[in-house]
Amino acid sequence: MEVKSEGIQLRCDKLQSPVIPRTRLRIWFIRVCSSIVIWTCLVQLVTVSELWQSHFISGITSSISRITQVQLPLRSDDGVAVVLPPLAPARNYTSNGFLRVSCNGGLNQMRAAICDMVTVARLLNLTLVVPELDKTSFWADPSNFEDIFNVKHFIDSLRDEVRIVKRVPKKFSRKEGYSTLAMPPVSWSNEKYYLEQILPLFGKHKVLHFNRTDTRLTNNGLPLDLQKLRCRVNYQALKFTSEIENLGQKLIQILQGNGPFVALHLRYEMDMLAFSGCTQGCTDNEAEELKQMRYAFPWWREKEIVSKERRSQGLCPLTPEEAALVLRALGFGRETQIYIAAGEIYNGERRLAELRAAFPRIVKKETLLTRDDLQQFQNHSSQMAALDFMVSAASNTFIPTFDGNMAKLVEGHRRYSGFKKTILLDRRKLVELLDMHQNRTLAWNEFADAVRQFHESRIVRPTRRRVILDKPKEEDYFYANPHECLCEETNCDDLPGPRNSSDV
């Protein structure tokens, strides 16, 4: 019986052995084919969505987004669930083409340019490509947009105004027969220029590349909805990355924990001194060093500069020594906590000595944070500037010693946040007073009284921007005083003229 059973078992094994490999091969083949089909469908689906912005796909993704926001609420620090509001419906429009922009300058110059370019894209019904940031300026910062700003928030928060994509679809590449037109738009241009001169270019070129973006949109004369869109981008859509936001908030909390503080935007950095030609308080060797730097950068067009003349015209940033005298004259005491919102001060602690002697509680981000905190931001000047921007916007008092882009944009943010105290220094008058005091022709009490008197009307208050027809460079800057975004509804008639804050 055992022999027979073994024989039967052997026959069964022989009958089954060829069947197993065939079955496994067939299953394996089916799985491979199915995977290929599925992935092909997915690739096609993504391609169709990217190229034609399928309303069907957009509807599905919007629904999924709303569902996930409801199902996965965030939690605040105290553990309470926080449900984010659903995204606004995406604006439905036929795009006239893609707008690429390369921003130039420092962080705040680029920030204003981004606001302008979103507005231009909205006006012309374009699809905006996430802006490219300047990597060739003096600071040579390699940061991309996503290294400084929250890209997802930027795209999502503006979806009801303009379509924003991370890159131009491959369909519109040179290989497919499309050419990109690179050009700088004309500075201080209004909507007529963009509608009549720029929009027709998209008939031939589906992609335009604005390779310069600074001050390419006028301050005044734009429709109210476009002005308000500029504000919406600036104050809501341009949110820093979580890393910058978290570290900035840590800085603010440290400062606030030590009491009220003044943010002093001490623009006494090497690049500013070289660019402006201001050498007050410098040795002959230092003045020559700054001059050589100015000649080393071809785009700094003005080369031969007389420092004394520039200073007498109020066109130089205050020196640290001058800032110390002015702060004392304005009534700030030795106990005042002062945050230096700036990069590396030229010749560092040597030039800060008098300021530190007058105000021992001077701090910087480098002294408040650990080396580990700042490590990821080192050699990224725009990211470091973002930290100073956050602190300056949150300070109890903000005092810029020069009216550059950061000073102007911080002023605008502080207006937008309820007119926090900002003192705009009258440098031309201050130079006269400082020289008289240092020449001992003006006693300290007289000097201090004069400084306070001249600055009573230079504390920022609600005002209209100054308009100078055909001289946009001399007008008040939109981002320093976006009064259309600060008025009740649409009525700005009750705002006083620009006498209080616009004569810098």
TrEMBL record:
- What Pfam families does the record point to? O-FucT
The primary site where this protein sits is membrane
What species was this sequence derived from? Lupinus angustifolius (Narrow-leaved blue lupine)
Question: What's its membrane topology?
Answer: Single-pass type II membrane protein
Task: Name the CDD domains for this protein.
Answer: O-FucT_plant
Q: According to its UniProt record, which protein family does this protein belong to?
A: Belongs to the glycosyltransferase GT106 family.
Pathway entry: Glycan metabolism
List cellular component terms (GO): chloroplast; membrane
Keyword terms, alphabetized: Carbohydrate metabolism, Fucose metabolism, Glycoprotein, Glycosyltransferase, Membrane, Signal-anchor, Transferase, Transmembrane, Transmembrane helix
- Lipid biosynthesis: present as a keyword of the record? no
**Domain of life of the organism in this record?**
Eukaryota
Looking up Gene3D superfamilies in the UniProt record yields:
3.40.50.11350
GO MF assignments: glycosyltransferase activity
**Where in or outside the cell is it found?**
Membrane
Q: What is this protein called?
A: O-fucosyltransferase family protein
A GO BP entry is: fucose metabolic process
Q: Which InterPro entries match?
A: FucosylTrfase_pln (IPR024709), GDP-Fuc_O-FucTrfase (IPR019378)
